[in-house]
Amino acid sequence: MKLISKALLLCSIVCSVLCMTACTKNNAQDEPQPVCPAPPGIAGIWELDAFLPFLDSTRQWHGVMDEDKIFYTFREDGTFSMERPAFNFREEGTYKFEYVAAGDSSYQTGHKLVLSSPDVVTEFKIESLSADTFRLDWWFLWCATGYSSSRYKRLITSSAN
């Protein structure tokens, strides 16, 4: 009887392991895409992943359609470019990343990303959501994209990023 019990126990363990392996295996399409290494001089390339439109009372994140696509390229020399392919639009300038402690205002305390181009200076509060995702919020009340908040995912990174 002990031999049969041991055989049944071993069989149930093997079946359980096989079942767990089959149930937890991801399809290739479900696996996250690897982040590509950056060419020399590029600190990172980021793509708009979702956004909150300005004055949208629902506060629901919107998915990105082709016309909404925005790509930021940050270079190690402190310059950036922002591209909106659907509008054939490209903006270039310099960027600065800094920590700001602003007294009583908790919203105005945090990491700030300042994008400067010949036409405009845009300031964002930046929040890291994960190693490959960050969120930009307007620092004040104006933004070139027209979104109050934007989430970006990393496409390319350098080892310095």
Description:
With 161 residues, the protein is mainly beta. It has one domain: Lipocalin (Beta Barrel), CATH 2.40.128. It has one helix at 2-24; strands at 36-37, 42-53, 62-63, 71-75, 79-84, 89-100, 110-116, 121-130, 133-138, 147-157. It has an eight-stranded antiparallel β-barrel with strand order 2-4-5-6-7-8-9-10. The radius of gyration is 23 Å and the shape is globular. The model is unreliable at 3-34 and 141-146 (pLDDT under 50).
Quick structural gist:
With 161 residues, the chain is mainly beta.
**What share of the residues does DSSP label as strand, in percent?**
over 45%
Helix content: 10-25%
Tell me the span between the first and last alpha carbons: 63 Å
Number of strand elements: 10
CATH architecture: Beta Barrel
Q: Which CATH first-tier class would you pick?
A: Mainly Beta
Quickly count the domains. Answer: 1
The outline comes out as globular
Structural class by helix and strand composition: mainly beta
| Sequence of strands across the biggest β-sheet | 2-4-5-6-7-8-9-10
Indicate the mean pLDDT: 69
Radius of gyration: 23 Å
Set out the fold topology.
Elements: H1 2-24, E1 36-37, E2 42-53, E3 62-63, E4 71-75, E5 79-84, E6 89-100, E7 110-116, E8 121-130, E9 133-138, E10 147-157
Parallel strand pairs: 1-10
Antiparallel strand pairs: 2-3, 2-4, 2-10, 4-5, 5-6, 6-7, 7-8, 8-9, 9-10
Short descriptors:
1 helix, Lipocalin, mainly beta
